[in-house]
Write a structure and sequence with these properties.
single chain; mainly alpha; rod-shaped
């Protein structure tokens, strides 16, 4: 009877150590995922900034060409169109930023829920029940 109990205790110890290793592995992967999400966010920010800089440069070129073609500058209609483009670009930028923030919040929430689920699974694993 004692031998059987000691075998069961050894088996439980092995299962607990395997669960601990599995939990550590999952936690490591979650940290790597969070780091990757942060890097992705940084790249998205850079891409947006570069796109807006290209649009601004194009507008400046367009203004320069219009100034060369008309001796006294830009007409009122062209100014209104440029302002409209600027306003629309700002709206797009705000929507992209809002969407990105919402996506990041959702991902963080999902990661937190996943961590809690994994933690509860480890806590209720067969090695803990015995």
């Amino acid at each position: 009877m004692m031998d059987q109990m000691s075998e069961q205790m050894a088996s439980m110890a092995r299962m607990y150590s395997q669960a601990s290793v599995g939990q550590t592995d999952v936690e490591t992967r979650l940290i790597e995922l969070a780091i990757t999400v942060e890097k992705l966010t940084g790249k998205l920010d850079q891409g947006q900034t570069q796109a807006l800089e290209r649009v601004a440069a194009s507008q400046e070129k367009m203004l320069a060409r219009m100034g060369e073609n008309s001796g006294d500058g830009i007409d009122a209609e062209s100014r209104m169109r440029l302002r409209s483009i600027d306003v629309q670009m700002l709206r797009i930028l705000e929507e992209i930023s809002t969407g990105r923030q919402e996506s990041i919040s959702e991902i963080r929430g999902d990661l937190a829920n996943l961590s809690k689920s994994i933690h509860s699974l480890v806590q209720t694993s067969p090695s803990r029940k015995k």
